[in-house]
Each structure stands twice: as C-alpha cells, then as structure tokens.
Amino acid sequence: MAIKKIVFTGGGSAGHVTPNIAIINELSNDWDVFYIGSKKGIEKELIQKINIPYFGINSGKLRRYIDFENFVDIFRVVKGCFEARRILKQLKPDLIFSKGGFVSVPVILAAKSLRIPIFIHESDLTPGLANKISQRFSTKIFTSFEETKKFFPEHKTTVIGSPIRKEIMNGSTEKGRKLLGFDKHTPILTIMGGSLGAKKINEVVRETLEQLTLHYQIVHICGKNNMDPHLFNRPKYKQYEYVYDELSDILAATDIVITRGGSNAIFEFLALNIPMLIIPLGLNQSRGDQILNAKVFQNKGYSLTLEEENLTSKTLMENLNTVYKNREMYQKNMKESYNGDALQTLVIEINNVNTSR
C-alpha cells in the first residue's frame, strides 16, 4: 500500500497546535506528516520539537476592526496562498487538517484550488474568523461543543469533543512533586495563562503571593519572557515560561488550576478532573470566545469563572478558595461528563480518506 500524506496547519497560539500534535502522535506509519505554519509563530517551535517537516509561509492577522494593517495583510495572505500552493503541489498530500488560526486560511484556499480534501476542527463554542472563512471550502467539520454545530453546514459537521493528548493523561503525581520540590501536605495550584502568557493574571498572582503561599504551593507557567528574576528562589513558588515533557507530571500533582478559557486547555483539565478557576480573555482583547467557553463549563459544574476586569488580589483569593472548598463537587461533575474519544474519532476519519494521488 502506498504511503499517504497529510499536511497539518494551524497556529498563532499553542491551543491551535497541541491538538494537531495529539493527532500526529496517533497516526500510523501509513502516513507521512508535514506541517505548514507561520514563519515565526509558536507552532514552528512546537512542531520542530517533534521532528515533523515544517514549512513557513506568510500570513496576515485576521482582524475584526478597521486598521491600516488589514490592507497590508491582504498582500501577506495572497503571498501566503501562493507559497502554500507551491508547497502543496510539491508534497501532493491526500488530506489537509486544520485547527484554525490566521495562518490556516492561505493553506485552506490553496488546498481547495488543488482539490485536496480538507478537514477542520473548531474548538471554541463559536467559530473563529479563520474557520468561518474555511468552512465553505472544507470537506468535513468537527466541533468540540454541541452548541457550535449550528454555525456550520449540518451535512458536513460532527460534534466529537476535543482531541486530548494521550501523554497528558499518563503523568505521575510523585514525579511531579519531586520535579517541583513540593511536599504532599499542601495543595498544589497550577497557573496557566496560555502559551503567550497572561499579563494581568501574572501581575495579580505575584501581588498576591504572600497570601497564596499560605495556602498553596504554586506552579506558575507565565509565558515567554514573563519570568520574574526576583522570584527564582521564592519558597512554595516555581515559575516557568512554558512546560513541555514534564507537564503531564505537573498536572498529575495539581489539585486546582487557574486557566484562561481556551477550549483545548479546559477540555484537558476536564479530562484530568482538575477543578478550574477560569479567567477568560475579556472582550477588549478577544472576540469573546473564552467567555462563552467558560460560561458553558461553569453551567455544567466543572469550574468557576472570574472575569478579568474583576480580577484583584481579593477576588482571586475568594474565588480560588471557593473552588478548592468545593473541589469534590467539581470533580464529581467532571467524572460524570462523557466527551467521547475525539482523538480516536479523528484518527479513524483520517485513516478512511481515500488516496487521491
């Protein structure tokens, strides 16, 4: 049997990349895997780390507001389309799989012009602009939330949940504590503001460290270039820019988590039964997708939401202590939820693609 080829795309944040990595890790040797992303985005670093051939293209940011850069980015997108088309003609893939993000649009347009089948997965409750554009060119669409289905053509949309990295499920509590140098008597709070960090969360956490460390041992994954050198030797506090291979062990040792409202992250915490305090990006920084994701999770009893504009040392401690106090209730609700095996579903769908070359 001929080896089939698949090209993954998606970028701009780790949330658009880690689900792709989860799928890549589960594909058999029947597939040759390639990745098209931006020239300098975080996806390049993450994909090269797993030794997948990577191709960088030009891409413009998709903005929902009037800005001179929108005019400039039209040319970047057009250039990216030509670059992606040249790469795809060279690779001759049997399938494109997209997780969204602005870099995916030129790849989708190029693939459609070459009649290559296109699968897309939308993680958030409401589709991002990239997937809104891409849906008309796609062959199949998959979503994490049931509520998202109404935004896409019914005949090609399936609700499957979010693909969870298998390695994230296999962490060791003991290894996590040993790595961190934390004891087993004080609860561990992990703070993850996303791959790019979260400025306001980082600031308030550090302002509140005196109170926080009275109750918790803290793992602070603060994003690139957001480490505070004055806190390197602070007791009960460990900070990292980003965590790779050790993340599963750290999460296995984690009792509660503070997170943004990105869909991939909160679905992973749901799968791990870790109670969450979700602090979503506000409307002044995003289209509001994280707020909607957080609302659904809170309504289902998986988490508590604290809006960033209301974030202070006082509200952080109050909400955090509420989550910890009610952690058994949250964990019970999480264990009763059934999200299916989205990862296995996607692998089966990909394997069923007919070779076109």
Q: What is this structure, in a nutshell?
A:
With 357 residues, this protein is of the alpha/beta class. It folds into two domains: 171 residues, Rossmann fold; 170 residues, Glycogen Phosphorylase B (Rossmann fold).
Would you tell me the structural class of the helices and strands? alpha/beta
- What does the main sheet amount to? 7 strands, parallel
* Order of strands, widest sheet: 3-2-1-4-5-6-7
Quick one: overall form? globular
**Number of beta-strand segments:** 13
Strand/helix succession: EHEHEHEHEHEEHEHHEEHEHEHEHHH
Parts with pLDDT < 50 across at least 5 consecutive residues: none
Percent of sequence in beta strands: 15-25%
The CATH H-level superfamily of the largest domain is Glycogen Phosphorylase B
Q: How many angstroms separate the termini?
A: 12 Å
Q: How much helicity do the residues have?
A: 25-40%
What's the Cα radius of gyration?
20 Å
Q: Round the mean pLDDT to the nearest integer and report it.
A: 90
CATH architecture of the largest domain: 3-Layer(aba) Sandwich
Annotation field: number of helices = 14
The CATH topology name of the largest domain reads Rossmann fold
State the CATH class of the largest domain.
Alpha Beta
Domains (count): 2
Give an overview in words.
This protein has 357 residues and is α/β, with parallel strands linked by helices. It has two domains: 4-162 and 340-351, 3-Layer(aba) Sandwich (Rossmann fold), CATH 3.40.50; 167-336, Rossmann fold, CATH 3.40.50. Helices cover 39% and strands 16% of the residues. It has a seven-stranded parallel β-sheet with strand order 3-2-1-4-5-6-7, sandwiched between helices. A six-stranded parallel β-sheet has the order 10-9-8-11-12-13, sandwiched between helices. β1 (4-9), α1 and β2 (31-38) form a beta-alpha-beta unit. It is globular, with a radius of gyration of 20 Å. The mean pLDDT is 90.
